[in-house]
Amino acid sequence: MRPFKYTRASDAAVAAGAVAANPNAKFLAGGTNILDLMKEDVERPNELVDVNRLKLSEIKEARGGVSIGALAKNSDTANHPLIRRNYPLLTQAIVAGASGQLRNMATNGGNLMQRTRCQYFYDTAMPCNKREPGTGCGALEGLNRIHAIFGWSDKCVATYPGDMANALYALDAVVRVRGSNGKERTIPVNDFHRLPGDTPEKDNNLAHGELITAIELPKSNFAKNSYYLKVRDRASYAFALVAVAAALELDGGNVRQARVVLGGVAHKPWRSAEAEAALAGRPASEESFRRAAEAALAGAKPLAHNAYKVELGKRAVVRALMRAARLV
Amino acid sequence: MPRYIGKEMSRVDGVAKVTGRAKYAAEFRAPNLAYGFIVLGSVAKGTIKSIDTSEAERAPGVVRVFTHLNTPKLGPKANTEYAPPRNAREQDKSFRALQSDRIYFNAQPVALVVAESYEQARYAARLVKATYDAEKHTTDTEAVRESARSPSQGPPPKPRGNPEEALKTAAVKVEAEYRIAMEHHNPMEPHAAVAAWDGDRLTIFDKSQEVYSVRRHLATTFGVPEANVTVVSPYVGGAFGSSLRPNYYPALTAMAARELKRPVKVVYTRTQMFTGHGHRPYTIQKIALGAERSGKLTSMIHTAVHNTSTFEEFSDNTTGFTRQVYACPNLFAPTLIAPVDLPTPTWMRAPGAVSGMFALECAMDELAYKLNIDPLELRLINYAERDPESGRPFSSKALRECYRLGAEKFGWKERRMEPRSMRDGRLLVGWGTATGVWGAFQSPASAKITYRADGTAHVTSATSDIGPGTYTVMTMIAAEYLGNRPEQVKFELGDTNFPRAPAQGGSQTTSSVGSAVHGAALAVAARLLALANQDESSPLKGAAPADVEMLDGRLRLKRDPSKSVQIPEVMRRNNLAEVTETFESRPSEERRKYATMAHGAQFVEVKVDPDLGRVRVTRAIEVTACGKIINPKASHSQEIGGVVWGIGMALTEATEIDHRFGRIMNPNLQHYHVPVNADVHEIETIFVEEDDTVVNPLGVKGMGELGMVGIPAAIANAVFHATGRRVRELPITPDKLL
Fold it and tell me: Which of B297, B316, B338, B405 qualifies as a cystine partner to B148, CB 3.0-4.6 A?
């Protein structure tokens, strides 16, 4: 990989200051994605600021919900009693991703920051606007079986690859961020990632030098009825073709409120307001779920090789809701 | 009673492997070692217009940057004085890197950066800037299928009987087309070489399945006598055919070492492996089967087309075994090749056989459904009692017993014929079967044994152990016939200083090298007998070598073990501390009177989630008849691995090319999906042993490839049975089942 400066920050102010001062600097947490990308010459930071020593790995009750430290490991988060008990959807989503070894290294903040798995993004000999703005999108008219069916632009058809975030979107999480000026702000997770538009090089709405410190989960009534479904090309250790994070709050046989988030279909986790609206106040039945699935996929715009994701998406939504409602 | 042969034995190299003591090619060190990193090109066809290495050369630690502009010409033309090709096989047309500005395939090596450290070389490799005059390329086999032709080597395919006519008049017909994605071997160990010259003598540590072929290739490449080249390859972390031919990196590494006058190491990255060796070709197969209502086949027409490169011919003889599986009087089964702008394909586990049998065995399943005959029954109806191609008898063929035993163990008679008729809750259950077949090959091979007075032995042969357990099985054979214990035998391989052995390919190592070790052990015994009988009072007087055997330090008469001599005493009398014999085994004349093949029957259960298109192979029973089993423990592992490979081919593996760029787009393990543990469920492997006195003195046949041959077809047939959907294109990913 290219030579880079490595520093280990002992507090957040120093870390944020160091990154803010250098437009080519990046934070280093678990390193499970960025180091691979640096070896492939896809990421080319000239400075890495290691934040692993910062005290940001606590998982604790807060404001009726839970606050998860940005540096808590994926494994520790998935296995934490507070998460398992109150947010089983998050546990399911995390363990659906990667492998045990990777989850032991990967942090929650880093997981939100992981980059697309588009093949064209990974191959520096190929055009990719996300990696190198202005070179074009290789996948738009190339191999796009694993690409987006929602929200893509002519500039980029890549998908956000993660699982954890799909659950966070369903759980209305809030991302707590520390600016380089020391000021904190919060970003509703739904506003964290972006659609590609004309600037696919930007995956999310963080400013340079902003550091994720925590992910906050509000009190949730979904613990009883939620399910994370992931469909992939092999049984484990593969990115989702389509994933669904489904959560229901039931009132007897009726849905009081629902969350439906699709993964693997867009540049960000794709929360379907249409599906959720179609479910609210309706009976928790296969028929309602089918209507919701139709609503969720109604606006899909498939590419040459991924039309299957529309049908698969519908079926996955139905299945995930059926499992969430414990009807199968 | 054999003491070791046929009994389970743990790998003699197991401890070395799990403790890290086993040294793989990239782990060898040499003083003053420099590190090379390969730079790959980015167009599929054309010429290099310019290549700017100045920035790379200025980077820290860089020793030299090799391109086609400053790399000496290598190969037969460079110097034929020392190594003229002796026959066609030695006309080594294999691709050599950096020999001209021509680009034959995308991700072709265009430079080698050599530096003081690997990291420095890899970094500087990013700084090499090449531009190209690209030409119109073709990488899509579909686009050139009409121009496919017979390989020029070997006779053109001849029909048997009159297949076209027989098809026309057949009562029942199946005609279908099948496709197999290009695949890559993806062994765990990346290919690597460490090369060091001493004057015009070269020592190279390489990952290889045949050290002698690498030696010949390098001698030809550098115009030095073969005797000047030593190739060492003691351990191989999987190869599956990807190291059968010398790949381009050993010559590239040795070239750099020679030019720089210091040792050089080059290791492929995973991505470089995808164009750094061959692949299983993309294969299109058209099959037409004609049958009587009874199920009896009357015509088989099986045509395969697969890609080769523009600079070399390769054929995996996809349809070869079609000629020998079923009794059918009318048949035509050509394999055609079509050049495209990709690297040359190569042999990949069960080459040709697994591809051809996927199509044939799926077509047989389709025929069974047209006839409404149980698929297993259809195979029995067409059982070949003799080789249908040559008319010769089989030296042994226990396939019928494989079918019977497999069906019984699997519970096949509980199968309901109609698709979608079996369920497990929401999941559709499908049961499929297929036949496996492979040749019982044997090639000339040599082994050397030094037997010492203390009962220990040193056994060598330049074979390879890519994982099947060759170290162990040769140790067992030597101990069996030297009458000592496996702990007293040290077997070494993978070194051109050892006697010549064939490539570890084609599942022929135990039959070839095992026969050589067996022969060498018998030669030691014969020598000891001659020495013993120099003594007038020898109790073995008059005995022929075939009458005696070695056991626990004694040479004794087989029919009367009380007549024996103490071997150490015989040696002492003759002033010998050790006895050394080298033996070359060759396939017998007797073999020619027979067809020599190995067979198997596969039974597979899949469970399919009909909504999500997910397929799980929940149960696989594989019954194989491959002669005598020397080490059941390693043999079962081989067959289990074969099933896993079959699962990968059937469900997950595909090399994807963006034909606009002619470039492989998934050259890594995140995008190229080999099966993971979660994809593998219950696998049972059973051997039906055959007592075959013809194939070779040990009665063994190959099994390493056989184990996967029928699996993809059995899985596809099970998927049809589960879903009613006939997927004729591998791999069967979820999108194909929606």
Answer: B338
